[in-house]
Design a protein that fits this description.
Helix content: 25-40%
Order of helices and strands: EHEHEHEEEHEEHEHHEHEHE
Number of helices: 9
Oligomer: single chain
Strand content: 15-25%
CATH architecture of the largest domain: 3-Layer(aba) Sandwich
Strand order of the largest sheet: 3-2-1-4-7-12-11-8-9-10
Number of strands: 12
CATH superfamily of the largest domain: HUPs
Length: 288
């Protein structure tokens, strides 16, 4: 299996904004992200332009801590999904930032159909923000998937980049392992011992694989960050999202699904568990 690597970091961020009640929080948060990631920020509104709207967004930008991070404001009319996708895939944007919404009755965050499609079909990484804030909330704990996948090396590298830039204290790499890998039916003490031994062997194997990836990450990105590896046996996607929720992670980082017409149905199903009930901000990394 060919391991895909990507250069840590992002150069150009695109944020698709709407004139919603959370406009101030969204713009403040995304300019802050651009600042900490040392990236340029492009703002795009899919909708009609008028001077009143331009004045409103300008006032919001000028109230932020980092107004100079905004390189350009683009106004385009059309279908939001197609407009954003076509712009991203024909530009130098390497991180698309989108806002998730909070369900009014269940108090859960979910991603609408436009954002769901964009996560699959844009040629860049995607950051979904579920709780933008005027006042900065430090990203203390990052959880990242450690799947045995060709893109995982790039995903873990970007997690450490984010952790370094956001001054995080801990990164946990979660190795999701299917229960079917055990292939042992526990019926008595003997089979129980076999299952425990097999689980230990798989955990050791996965830890070794993940540490090989981490060893290749620049030391500067790992400085002052506590590393933890965690093997979880269960349903992929659901197990990872549940773990991030239980430990109250501030950011969850995962591999992007393949952006082809025949992308893996299994991987899409896995990511849907997370998108259907976001436990925290989500960074979906697409390896270059």
């Amino acid at each position: 299996m060919e391991i895909k690597k990507t250069k840590e970091g992002f150069n150009t961020i695109l944020f698709g904004f709407a004139f919603s009640p959370t406009l101030n929080q969204n713009i403040t948060e995304v300019t802050r992200v651009a600042h900490y990631f040392d990236a340029e920020l492009i703002l795009m509104h899919v909708g009609a332009y008028n001077e009143q709207k331009e004045g409103e967004i300008s006032r919001v930008i000028n109230k932020t801590e980092y107004p100079d991070k905004v390189k350009e404001i683009i106004w385009k009319e059309g279908d939001p999904y197609s407009t954003i996708k076509n712009f991203v895939n024909n530009s130098d944007v390497d991180l698309l930032v989108l806002g998730a919404q909070q369900h009014e009755t269940l108090y859960r965050f979910y991603v609408g159909s436009v954002a769901r499609k964009l996560t699959r079909h844009v040629n860049c990484s995607v950051l979904l923000l579920i709780n933008p804030s005027i006042k900065r909330k430090q990203c203390q704990h990052i959880v990242v998937n450690g799947l045995d996948n060709e893109n995982t090396s790039a995903t873990i590298s970007q997690a450490f980049f984010a952790g370094h830039k956001l001054q995080s204290k801990q990164i946990t790499v979660v190795e999701e392992i299917q229960d079917s890998e055990l292939k042992i039916s526990v019926e008595d003490d003997s089979s129980l011992k076999q299952a425990v031994k097999k689980e230990s062997e798989i955990t050791e194997r996965e830890d070794k694989r993940v540490h090989q990836i981490i060893n290749d990450i620049p030391k500067g990105l790992k400085k002052e960050i506590q590393l933890k590896t965690q093997s979880i046996f269960g349903r992929r996607g659901y197990s990872l999202g549940h773990y991030a929720e239980v430990v109250r992670a501030d950011l969850l980082v995962i591999n992007a699904p393949k952006n082809t017409n025949l992308f893996s149905r299994i991987f899409t199903r896995d990511i849907e568990f997370i998108l259907s009930d976001l436990p925290t901000d989500l960074l979906i990394v697409r390896a270059s």
